[in-house]
Amino acid sequence: MRAIQADITTLTVDAIVNAANNLLLGGGGVDGAIHRTAGPELLADCRLLNGCQTGEAKITRGYRLPAKHVIHTVGPIWTGGRCDEPQLLASCYRRSLELAAEHGIRSIAFPCISTGVYGYPADQAAAIAVRTASATLRTLPIPIEVTFCCFLRSDLGLYNARLAADSAEGAS
Ligand code: AR6
Asked: Given Cys at both, which of 27, 40, 105, 108 links 31, Cβ 3.0 to 4.6 Å?
């Protein structure tokens, strides 16, 4: 697992993850950027998926993106943490990785799900992302290279701290 600062739509990986909404018909933020770069075929494909529940994930092709696939997941809207937000956010990372493994995906990049419009506190979200990805990778039959793609420099700092703590834990 590694963290970088980049625009996720530029990454050449087997799959990028989209922080979508329940309708899966596009939106702002990273969702808007992914749809703009992938082109109208992505929206046409998404229309066939019948939406997606919060914490779940669905897969499409990447069309004009350098990534071969897009895994669309729906993070929780932050309302203070008492509406299962941590469990739902963890589920986004777990279900995306499980779906990736089912499709033979060997490299995947995640944005910082829920931390934009949906308002999830960035540090808490980074902790969940790293902890859940680390735990899920240990359960998968094939190794997957995970990149946490941070748009903001502040997020990159949070992820690097969490990744260092995770690898220290793994070593002890
Ligand atoms: N590459 C990587 N990360 C990005 C990019 C990009 N091109 N653009 C933004 N981010 P958000 P959410 C980061 O709001 O909070 C949409 O309208 C951004 O800095 O995109 O899960 C959907 O349709 C932030 O760290 O997603 C939903 O309605 C992270 O992506 C709603 O927003 C997530 O911010 C989902 O909200």
From this structure: 27
- Which ligand 1 atom minimizes the distance to the CA of 151? 3
Q: Which helix (H) or strand (E) holds 73?
A: strand 69-74
Tell me the C-alpha distance between 13 and 132, whole Å.
Answer: 20
Residue with tokens 């998926």: 49
Residue 148 CB–ligand 1 contact under 6 Å:
no
- The structure's pTM equals 0.98
C-alpha 95: how far from its chain's center? 10
Q: Please tell me if the CB atom of residue 112 comes closer than 6 angstroms to any atom of ligand 1.
A: yes
- Successive 10-residue mean pLDDT values, the chain, 172 residues: 98 98 97 98 97 98 98 98 96 98 98 98 98 98 97 98 91 70
